[in-house]
Amino acid sequence: MELMMQNGDYVSDGRGGVKRSEGGEEILQRVLFQLSARRGAFPLLPQVGSELWRLPRAKEQQRAALAAQYVSQALAGERDLEIDECVLEEREGTPWLTVRLTWQGTPLEAELAL
After folding, report:
1. Is residue 1 over pLDDT 60?
2. Which of 42, 53, 87, 114 holds its CA 20 to 30 A away from the CA of 62?
3. Which residue range is the domain that position 99 belongs to?
4. In 1-114, at which residue ranges do the beta strands (DSSP E only) sit?
5. CATH value at residue 19
6. By its UniProt entry, which SUPFAM superfamilies does this protein fall under (predicted)?
């Protein structure tokens, strides 16, 4: 079971602990962690995280393709997970990434602000 995260913070269980997830929710939590963590931030685990933090430096017309590339790279180690679509859009001046996935036939969706 994975610890649940929302907007980069752990989700409280209301009893001083942290909520845990199972099944598709567990996979989704791992996906959100991989996409949110900066690749290279964990020296002993260089494959953890993504390079999505680099997107603001890229030319605007290249960002969507780079986002899909960075997502694919970050999630390469997840078994039984297919990336169906990556959508990069602006919401109230903030770039957001929506990643639609399929895990063991179950559709999942991860959203995060960049």
Report:
1. no
2. 42
3. 2-113
4. 2-3, 5-6, 9-10, 20-21, 81-91, 94-103, 106-113
5. 3.10.450.40
6. gpW/gp25-like
